């Protein structure tokens, strides 16, 4: 039961991160970005499970609150917020997944930069790593829909800062 709850919490965090990074990553025009936030409601099996999920999410830095009582308990999740442009929102979403996830993205970007000769090859190597992740991995959910240009900006940022 605890493992199921952890997987549920991780998937909610990733879904919120994807909700925050997705619309910004696919913006058609360059407009000044304000705060980006996503809100989702997740149904819980019972009130105890919903309370545990809320405390886990709040501890992880994602704002969540309990909506409803009894058998119709739900958890409203909202709040990956970040200021800045497209890249900063993507980086904030990846950092929200935890230090181990962020470190693995850094290592994969460095590996892709070493093994690709051109920008397109580097992005292709990075996307190959992303596609090799498990379907339930929140890193894959955040990076899968990201356009190639933004992935190159992420790789370039990591090369120059880490």
Q: Could you explain how this protein is built, in words?
A:
The protein is mostly helical and 162 residues long. Helix content is 60%, strand content 9%. The protein is built from 7 helices and 3 strands, in the order αβαββααααα. A 3-stranded antiparallel β-sheet has the order 1-3-2, with helices on one face. Strand 2 and strand 3 (74-78) form a beta hairpin. Helix 5 packs across helix 7 (148-161). The longest helix has 24 residues, at 2-25. The termini are far apart.
Structure, briefly:
It contains 7 helices and 3 strands.
> Residue-averaged pLDDT, rounded?
75
Strand content: 5-15%
In terms of per-residue confidence, which ranges show pLDDT below 50 for 5 or more consecutive residues? 31-38, 79-84
What's the main sheet like? 3 strands, antiparallel
The radius of gyration computed from the alpha-carbon positions, rounded to a whole number of angstroms, is 17 Å
H/I helix tally: 7
What would the principal axes of the Cα set say about the shape? elongated
What structural category arises from helix and sheet content?
A: mainly alpha
Strand order of the largest sheet: 1-3-2
């Amino acid at each position: 039961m605890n493992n199921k709850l952890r997987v549920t919490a991780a998937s909610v965090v990733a879904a919120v991160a994807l909700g925050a990074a997705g619309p910004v990553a696919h913006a058609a025009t360059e407009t000044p970005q304000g705060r980006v936030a996503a809100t989702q409601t997740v149904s819980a099996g019972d009130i105890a499970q919903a309370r545990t999920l809320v405390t886990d999410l709040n501890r992880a830095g994602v704002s969540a609150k309990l909506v409803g009582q009894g058998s119709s308990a739900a958890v409203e999740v909202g709040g990956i917020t970040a200021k800045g442009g497209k890249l900063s929102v993507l980086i904030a979403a990846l950092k929200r997944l935890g230090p181990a996830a962020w470190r693995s993205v850094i290592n994969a970007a460095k590996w892709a930069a070493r093994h690709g000769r051109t920008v397109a090859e580097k992005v292709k190597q990075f996307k190959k790593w992303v596609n090799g992740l498990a379907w339930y991995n929140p890193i894959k959910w955040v990076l899968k829909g990201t356009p190639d240009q933004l992935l190159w900006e992420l790789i370039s940022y990591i090369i120059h800062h880490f």
